[in-house]
Structures are given as C-alpha cells and as structure tokens.
Amino acid sequence: MSTPLPWSMQQLFQQQSGHKYPSAALRVFRTLSGQAGEGWLATWSGGIVFLGRQPETAPQRLRFDWHDVTGLEICEEPFGAEICLETTDETWRLPFALRDRPLAERLRSQRPPPDAAMNSPPPLPKTPPPLPKTPPPLPKKAKRKAPKTFARPHERKYLPNVVYFAAAMLAMAHTDNVMAESELTAISRIFEQRECLAQGRRVLNSCSLEELFQTIATLFTPEQKKCLLANLLDLAAVDGTTAPQEIELLNQCQRILEIPDTLWLWLEDANRIKNDLSVFSY
Description:
3-stranded antiparallel β-sheet; 4-stranded antiparallel β-sheet; single chain; TerB-like; rod-shaped; 282 residues; PH-domain like; 2 domains
C-alpha cells in the first residue's frame, strides 16, 4: 500500500526518524495542539511521528518512541472515526477520512505489543565473553585383545571362539573326573583335529570355570551361546546319566551367559526327547 505522505512531509519524516519511507502513514484533520488542520501520523520501527501544518503557522513535528506510546487505537464516532494516540503524558484523538480506514488499520498494527521489550533478546555484552578452552581429547578406547588360544608355533591357530568352545566341552567331560568313552567320541566328532582339543585343554588349565564362561560371555554371539549350551546338555547326557557336578556346571553356564529360562527349558526338553530311545523299546 503506497504512503499518502506528500514529498515535503517525507523529507520531514526522514529528518525525524532517520528513515526514508514510513512503514505506515495516515492523514488526519486535527493537530496535536487541538486546532483544525491537516497533518499526518507516520510510523517506523522505532516509533511514531506527527507531521502537521497549521494554516497560519510553520510546520510542527512531534516524535514519540514506541516505549512512550501506551495506546494506538481506532475510535468509532457517529460521523466518522478517529485514531486515538496515547502517550505517557497525554492523549490525542485525531479524526481521519472513512476511506482511509485500511491505512488506519495498518498504522495501528505497527505498534509492537506491550511485552515486546520483555520478550526481546537481552542486549549484547560490551565485551564478548572469553572463548571456552578446548577440552582435552578423550583417551582412545583400547581395543579389546582376543583371548589367548595357547597355540604352539608348529600348530594351526584356530579362532578363539572355536578353542573356547572346545575348552567348555572338555570342562563338561571332566566334571566327574572321569571321561567316558562316549564323551570322548562325542567331542571328537565335533573337533576332528587333535590340535584344537589340545589348545582347548591349555585354555582350561589356565583359568577357572568362572573365568572361562566369563570370557565366553563376551566372546560368543547369541547363536554361538545357544549352540554351546545345546552341546553341553547333549554331552552331559551322552553317557546315560547326568551327575550333580554336570548339573552344577550347566547352571553356572546358564547364569554367566545369561541364557533365558525359556530357552534353557526348551533345550533341556529337546535334549531329553532326543536321548529317550525307550519310546522305541530300544
């Protein structure tokens, strides 16, 4: 919407506000001194200015910053409308033409809300705050070394998972201090190379059962843990009896590897069904 300010008033506005063009302007028909005459209210981002010319006097100019303006409203009158300008010191009611109602609405909308100053960001400090000191670099996380497999120089090196699998199976076979022929056959069927069993035996001799299963807990994947437990259950029952020491080892394995009870019961039931050949009167 174009401004109705005449050229001469635009120059006065620029002198008062420091801006070349107003954000809104409205022609009124009364001066701030209450005399009849033509004038203009014009706004910019910092406030509002009255530019008026009385018929027999020189131009008059009055400027108000927004923090001095307490009200800027449109007041309806029987034969027209007035813009009501309130400041901390005085109130003025300035009539305007009805056809300029859109200009009056625009002028009124330029006044910032009363709490704008409260919600505005705080002023910048005179001196910038000191830059934060660069924090020292975090220590690099040491890579976890793979556990020893105790392979001799002339032996093939197996993956730690395989060697610790063999160590756990040997631990189960030796729980009752006697390795039955059936247990040896079952283990040999899984680990065909004697070197792998030899390395597993060295691992078993170098640590306790607690340490063995703790290493397995960090080394094995969930599927490898499930496979290990299934084979331990099968090995415990391969000789036809399950000794109390074997049950204790199985419970220790389940606890350290955090095997859920539901999975444990399912594997135990599957192993019992597998080894119960009496259903065939065998």
